[in-house]
């Protein structure tokens, strides 16, 4: 039974990674739409709800790496910031929602805030320490919270609906499978 559970986790993670690579391409055709609507975040956030912390973290790590290798987005060196941020989303949601048994919105909002804190720290490390450029926290926070506001709104509106539909569908298919 354990092998079957790991296989299910692997398949779900793989599908979410594929979506996380493909979905941003739809948005990157329009200037800055990717950084406004945050399409890569959506499958990672969903992964946190339907995967255990390890697989959720892997979706957050592998998605930006694959996207960068295949499309050049997110650009170097900020792909590393995305890896840290998205991995944090996956782990935190999975721990808060699945292990901590918290409300879907509590898990989503708290992980979004903590993931953005990881993003700020990652930007500081890359800009200030490695690129020897000034770190402007106001600019970074504005980019994360103001420029990304449409994406945040989409995440808050769509992710819970998608997760609840997936949970219902997955539960139904498991129940039918076990008959």
Structural write-up:
By secondary structure, the protein is mainly alpha-helical. It has a single domain (39-167), classed as Arp2/3 complex 21 kDa subunit ARPC3 (Orthogonal Bundle), CATH 1.10.1760. Helices cover 83% and strands 0% of the residues. It is built from 8 helices and no strands. The mean pLDDT is 90.
Task: Summarize the structure in short.
The protein contains 8 helices and no strands.
Blueprint (SSEs and pairs):
Blueprint (H helix, E strand, L loop, with lengths): L1 H26 L5 H5 L3 H10 L2 H19 L7 H21 L4 H27 L6 H11 L1 H30 L1
Give descriptors for this structure.
single chain; mainly alpha; 179 residues
Shape: globular
> Pairing-aware structural class of the strands and helices?
mainly alpha
CATH architecture: Orthogonal Bundle
Helix share bin: over 70%
Mean pLDDT: 90
User: Could you state the order of secondary-structure elements as H and E?
Assistant: HHHHHHHH
Rg for CA atoms = 16 Å
Q: Structurally, how many domains make up the residues?
A: 1
Largest sheet: none
Beta percentage is: under 5%
Identify the CATH class: Mainly Alpha
What is the end-to-end distance? Answer: 15 Å
Quote the CATH topology: Arp2/3 complex 21 kDa subunit ARPC3
- The counted number of beta strands is 0
If helices are DSSP runs of H or I spanning 4 or more residues, what is the number of helices?
A: 8
List low-pLDDT spans.
Answer: none
């Amino acid at each position: 039974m354990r092998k079957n559970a790991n296989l299910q986790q692997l398949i779900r993670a793989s599908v979410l990674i594929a979506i996380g690579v493909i979905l941003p391409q739809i948005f990157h055709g329009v200037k800055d739409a990717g950084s406004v609507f945050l399409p890569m975040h959506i499958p990672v956030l969903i992964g946190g709800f339907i995967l255990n912390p390890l697989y959720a973290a892997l979706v957050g790590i592998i998605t930006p790496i694959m996207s960068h290798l295949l499309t050049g987005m997110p650009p170097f060196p900020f792909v590393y910031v995305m890896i840290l941020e998205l991995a944090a989303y996956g782990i935190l949601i999975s721990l808060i929602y699945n292990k901590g048994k918290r409300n879907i919105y509590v898990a989503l909002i708290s992980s979004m805030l903590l993931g953005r804190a990881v993003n700020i720290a990652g930007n500081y490390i890359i800009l200030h320490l490695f690129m020897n450029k000034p770190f402007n926290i106001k600019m970074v926070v504005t980019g994360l919270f103001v420029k990304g506001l449409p994406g945040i709104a989409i995440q808050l509106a769509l992710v819970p609906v998608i997760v609840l539909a997936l949970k219902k569908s997955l539960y139904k298919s498991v129940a039918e499978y076990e008959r």
